[in-house]
Amino acid sequence: MLLFIIVFDSCDNHAFDSDKRQLMAKDGIRHQLRRARSFDIIAFKEDTVKNFSDTSFKNVLSYTLDFKYTDSNGDLQQKQGVVFFTPNGKSIISSQITDKH
What we know:
Radius of gyration: 17 Å
Mean pLDDT: 85
Number of domains: 1
Helix content: 25-40%
């Protein structure tokens, strides 16, 4: 029984790491938008960046979100946000929003 609990607990901690980062990325991007309504993620991609601009970090995790929202003027906006995480995935290094290509 103890072995089952140890195995279940160790799987549980890692299974949700990616989901947690995705939520952190979404919150980080959404926080940069002002007065955004109807925020919806259209596409999502996770990558590892080998050559990050800040040489203090190697193998940075990158989350790219294509999203749409309604701005304060009522206009539909479609953008892309990129959020960079530390290699362990626990902290955001930086994030940026660009026009969707």
